[in-house]
């Protein structure tokens, strides 16, 4: 698809890790009219406010990166908020986009949409073939609903609403909260603080053997724009009306031990690294099959160590945000 740099693009969720990366990517590519809105401008869970917002602005494309997100503890503690807010945000935005005549939209989901025991690496076809991980089931159901909303508006109204499912993301604007963060920001902060306290060791939960895949958020943003800009013929040749979502990842995983050793090196911590095998490991492996995305002409370029360096430097520059 030819790139029209004068189109007005609404990035919903621009203050989050993924949304802010998409804004950066669009600016690098030369897009001149990027529309963003904070909660003071529009409450995305309020249908009337969202509809009014679309009526006020002539929007050509939407990147739906807005979501309520959190780690296992947050998902377990607030399941009602996770399913309600995410359902409302995506339903309001997708429906308002359709009513306003916005034909192009990209919905960002999550790898947690796949069954807990999905075959590895997880292919797009695994969706709805088994039970979900109980701890984040409400969030996963909301994200599955977003995929099906896009597919339904495409089928009934001829819209061009696409969906991408990222693997575990990290990078600038990540959440480094000591209790509610994901594994990479949690480890970066733990090793950093241990270094400055002069600790002799850092203990990581579990055996260190589970394998996980990690994608830098700038790669996620590049992949998102790439999928959005694909011409219809290329996109449709690699998807179907009932299987329209596309996995986004590196296609490469590492053990938690390897991750922790890399974080240790990046942070400059010189003490010992030990693992508490009495603590739970979680799922043994979680890897995305990204063959469909590669067939569409995109693959990740940021190495894990380079990406961790970038995330760590961002944390150092923004520590005041995360002080208790």
TrEMBL record:
Source organism's superkingdom? Bacteria
Entry's Pfam families?
Epimerase (PF01370)
GO BP terms in the entry = 'de novo' GDP-L-fucose biosynthetic process
Q: In which pathway does it act?
A: Nucleotide-sugar biosynthesis; GDP-L-fucose biosynthesis via de novo pathway; GDP-L-fucose from GDP-alpha-D-mannose: step 2/2
Q: Where is the NAD-dependent epimerase/dehydratase domain?
A: 9-233
Q: Which PANTHER family does this chain map to?
A: GDP-L-FUCOSE SYNTHASE
Its biological purpose: Catalyzes the two-step NADP-dependent conversion of GDP-4-dehydro-6-deoxy-D-mannose to GDP-fucose, involving an epimerase and a reductase reaction.
* HAMAP family, A to Z: GDP_fucose_synth
Query: Which family does the record claim for this protein?
Result: Belongs to the NAD(P)-dependent epimerase/dehydratase family. Fucose synthase subfamily.
* Protein name per UniProt: GDP-L-fucose synthase
């Amino acid at each position: 698809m030819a790139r029209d740099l004068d189109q007005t693009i609404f990035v919903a969720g621009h203050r989050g890790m993924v949304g802010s990366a998409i804004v950066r990517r669009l600016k690098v590519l030369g897009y001149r009219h990027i529309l963003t809105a904070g909660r003071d401008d529009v409450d995305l869970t309020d249908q009337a406010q969202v509809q009014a917002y679309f009526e006020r602005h002539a929007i050509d494309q939407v990147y739906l990166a807005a979501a309520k997100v959190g780690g296992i503890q947050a998902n377990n503690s607030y399941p009602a908020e996770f399913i309600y807010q995410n359902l409302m945000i995506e339903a309001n935005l997708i429906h308002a986009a359709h009513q306003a005549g916005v034909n192009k939209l990209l919905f960002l989901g999550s790898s947690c949409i796949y069954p807990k025991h999905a075959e590895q690496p997880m292919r797009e076809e695994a969706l709805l073939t088994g039970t979900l991980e109980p701890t984040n089931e409400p969030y996963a159901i909301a994200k599955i609903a977003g995929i099906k909303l896009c597919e339904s508006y495409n089928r009934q109204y001829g819209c061009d609403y696409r969906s991408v499912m990222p693997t575990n993301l990290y990078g600038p604007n990540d959440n480094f909260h000591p209790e509610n963060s994901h594994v990479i920001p949690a480890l970066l902060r733990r090793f950093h603080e241990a270094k400055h306290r002069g600790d002799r060791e850092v203990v990581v939960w579990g055996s260190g053997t589970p394998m996980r895949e990690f994608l830098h958020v700038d790669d996620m943003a590049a992949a998102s724009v790439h999928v959005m800009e694909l011409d219809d013929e290329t996109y449709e040749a690699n998807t179907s009306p009932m299987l329209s979502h596309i996995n986004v990842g590196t296609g490469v995983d590492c053990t938690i031990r390897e991750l922790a050793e890399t974080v240790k090196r990046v942070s400059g911590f010189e003490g010992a690294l030990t693992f508490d095998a009495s603590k739970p490991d979680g799922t043994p492996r979680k890897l995305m099959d990204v063959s469909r995305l590669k067939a569409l002409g995109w693959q990740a370029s940021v190495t894990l160590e380079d990406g961790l360096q970038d995330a760590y430097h961002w944390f150092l520059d923004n520590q005041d945000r995360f002080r208790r």
